[in-house]
Amino acid sequence: MNKRIIAVDKAVKSFRTYENKKGFMSSLRRKSYMKKALKGVSFSISESEIVALLGRNGSGKSTMIKLMSGILYPDSGSISVLGMDPWKERTDLAWNIGVIFGSTHPQLFWDLPPIDTFIYVKEIYNISDEDYNSRLSYLKKILDIEKVYKRQTRQLSLGERMKCEFTASMLHMPKVVFMDEPTVGVDLPSRMAISRAVLDLREKFGTTFVLTTHVVDDVAIADRIILLDHGRKLFDGSQETLKKRFGKYAILELYFNPESKPDISKYEILGKVFSKKDGYIGLKVKPEITKEKSFTAIFDDKDILDYRLSEPGLSSILESTYKRIDKNGKGSKGD
Q: pTM of the full predicted structure?
């Protein structure tokens, strides 16, 4: 069993903010108050795990990444990464972690080619020539940056820049890598290249990855999902467990003859209609719908050309989970 290398215990973090008042001179009358970004979050991560930290904007994801990487300190609770306190021992920790904050906080020099940043990183981390050359060769190949890393950074596409950002963060071969929204706006081939690199680094070197993302496709490589909302942990487990807990429905898609005008109310007996357009109706139904007579009856409908029954995707599950939270005012605290 892999050893635990990250431990977060009842972490609390608050920030001072101000009332949002409108009108003349409102800025002079505003009152400040402390808003809790994290409200006692606890979890642990083992060596070589890939963990996706998910949640809506304001859920506390980025704050948690900054706490674990030593950029911020918790108001209370404790955090340990590789046996170190990230805030008190952040200099020592920096030698063993990598951090990628997406396109909003680049480390590449804008007017220089990425290769200059790579050399700069080599000197900072005292990487030997042999290690530097072998690591760069490996990363160039797996990320497909051979044709771009010597071009001026400003001339690169966002996807090319993010692959080079990833390379720069991996040259010292960190044991833990924190990735905060690394692929927002990045093209599909570049996202796939970064995902392949993450999986290969975990397989070959046992690297641990913690990522936040709104790109659901990125979550496919994660071993675990930790779901946050309003600073609390709602869920901690596998994607399959998430589907069983929050995705207790199936998706039934009906495809009609383009010339027909189906009566939607006729099909509402099957489930809840969530999408409708010419020649198509999408419904949320019970997973065991195939055993019911109402389902077999659709085969007698001559206007139906085809159907598809599938499990809901992760994006649908997350959307329905957030709607349930908003409706009830709170969610499950998770495992």
A: 0.80
